Amino acid sequence: MGKPTGFLERDRALPPRRPVDERVQDFREVETRLPVENAREQASRCMACGVPFCHSGCPLGNVIPEWNHEVYQDEWRAAAEALFATNNFPEITGRVCPAPCEAGCVLQLENSPVTIKRIEGAIADRALEEGWVEPRPPKALTGKRVAVVGSGPAGLAAAQQLGRAGHEVTVFERDDCIGGLLRYGIPDFKMEKSIIDRRVVQMEAEGVSFRTGVEVGADLSLSALRDQHDAVVLAIGATKARDLPIEGRELEGVHLAMDFLVPQNRAVADGLPALPNAQGLRVVVLGGGDTGSDCLGTAIRQGAASVTQIELMPQPGGDDPDAWPEWPMVFRTSSSQEEGGDRQWSILTKRFLGDEGRVTGLDAVRVTWEDGQLRESEERVVIEADLVLLALGFVGPDLSRLTEGDVEVPRDGRGNLVADTERFQTSLEGVFACGDARRGQSLVVWAIWEGRQAAHAVDVFLMGESVLPTSPLD
Ligand SMILES: Cc1cc2nc3c(=O)[nH]c(=O)nc-3n(C[C@H](O)[C@H](O)[C@H](O)COP(=O)(O)OP(=O)(O)OC[C@H]3O[C@@H](n4cnc5c(N)ncnc54)[C@H](O)[C@@H]3O)c2cc1C
Ligand code: SF4
User: Fold this and answer.
1) Which candidate, 56, 54, 42, places its Cα nearest to that of 3?
2) What span, in angstroms and rounded, lies between the C-alpha atoms of 86 and 71?
3) What's the mean pLDDT in 13-31?
4) From atom 37 of ligand 1, which residue's Cα is the shortest distance away?
5) Rg (CA), the chain
6) 404, part of any domain
7) pLDDT tens string 278-322
8) Sheet with strand 373-384: strands edge to edge
9) Does 10 reside within a domain?
């Protein structure tokens, strides 16, 4: 424990976000770095609890009290070693993770939690900038070939672990760039893409090969991939969006969220205009979650005339005292929601309104919730809109091409690939599944966990044993 009285002397303090007026003019990251001195002060608040409940919130088995201690002692390199031992990409989780570890922190009970996520980000950024994170090519090769399909956080974590175990790993990605939703889902204002590029360079130096623009199932069959490799890892994400097939869905100006977010991420990368674009339009976002919030922040930056985000569920309360150490269901305001827009709850959209084939608004009713049951009220709500974005979640992996004319990969009732959390193997011999494709749409931290666990399982399958670390669930 760094400083026994640290939590009594210091309050939780986060570095300020960039001012709203400034940040909505660009797509650069909103959050600023936790400076070294402040990180030490914040780390001094950690009580090194006998039972560190912060661990209960994070699947990766991050040794949080250890790195807090090292940071307080100004031993940043030791902190980085402890951090990288359990997480392949802490500079990514240090930016985009909602930090369930902080919800579990014991200080949350009487005070406010340790700023675990920002300390994690500060350690990772410093380690990468100081050149402490060198490529770690394997000492010996096994002669085994592994194909990883999909280059999101699950595929990247699996590929890095398997490459370090000495296997010849190739990552196949249907998009033109590596990263999955890190690249084309999460907006730059939450995470700039140079963060991914730096890791790709490191992984190439470790011996991992990347093949972009190859869709397995279309450009290369799964059967061929199995013939050419000793194992195949499907880390294809859960990118099939939930739609809203109601009257007017076909109108021009009604889009799935990803059809709006992806072009903007591409525009930041290549400088070409993003289409569809919210400039000058009245935008309505259906869905009050994180994807909806990312649409809101993007629409504001594009110069929308107005943005309204509507949600079917009721507005959460300000407190959930019984939740600790679990994730509390409380009212939150994201950095994008801080920037503007109107939020409305308990609204059910019945149909989209249009004129000459273009959307002009939506026709909805207010609902009430009793014992978890939705009841429609008589109150009608009409919201005018020129652009409607559907951010209603995702229903599973996109297997439309992967299974066509090819071997079928078994799926569960929700459409996810079936594999358990011990062997990660599907019912096809040597074909493994991990990440959102296996567990359903989730979080980056879970995708990294899935990739690491699956890599261990693949290594055992290929070699009979594995020294790759795991973090099994309780
Ligand atoms: C808009 C948005 C914002 C988000 N924000 C956050 C956030 O702030 N924090 C957080 O923790 N989580 C966030 N998430 C969730 C997070 O991004 C995902 O849980 C995570 O990326 C899943 O990782 P994955 O590797 O399993 O899949 P993905 O990241 O979806 O990657 C799958 C990859 O597989 C590729 N692929 C699919 N099929 C094939 C094929 N047949 N052949 C070749 N390649 C294929 C896809 O092109 C894709 O690149 C967000 C999600 C969205 C949609
Ligand atoms: S629960 Fe909080 S105070 Fe306790 S060890 Fe974890 S981070 Fe430190």
Assistant:
1) 42
2) 17
3) 97
4) 236
5) 23
6) yes
7) 999 999 999 999 999 999 999 999 999 999 999 999 999 888 878
8) 347-355, 358-370, 373-384
9) yes
pTM for the model? 0.97
Largest CA distance in the chain: 70
Task: Give the strands of the sheet with 431-433, arranged side by side.
Answer: 209-212, 168-173, 145-149, 231-234, 431-433
Q: Tell how far the Cα of 173 is from the centroid of ligand 1, in angstroms.
A: 12
What's the gap in Å between 71 CA and the centre of ligand 2? 14
Buried b (16+ CB within 10 A) or exposed e, 393-406: ebbbbbbeebeeeb
pLDDT score for 474: 61
User: What would the pLDDT profile of 82-118 be if each residue is shown by its tens digit?
Assistant: 999 999 999 999 999 999 999 999 999 988 999 999 9
Domain membership of residue 136 (yes or no) is no
Alpha-carbon distances, residue 351 vs 145, 314, 359 (angstroms)? 51, 20, 11
Same domain? For 363 and 278 the reply is yes
Measured from the Cα of 217, ligand 1's closest atom is 41
CA 447 – CA 195 distance, rounded (Å): 17
| For range 395-415, the mean pLDDT | 80
Domain span holding position 314: 243-392
Is the preceding peptide bond at 65 cis, omega within 30 degrees of 0? no
Strands 347-355 and 358-370: antiparallel
Residue 291 alpha carbon to ligand 1 centre in Å = 12
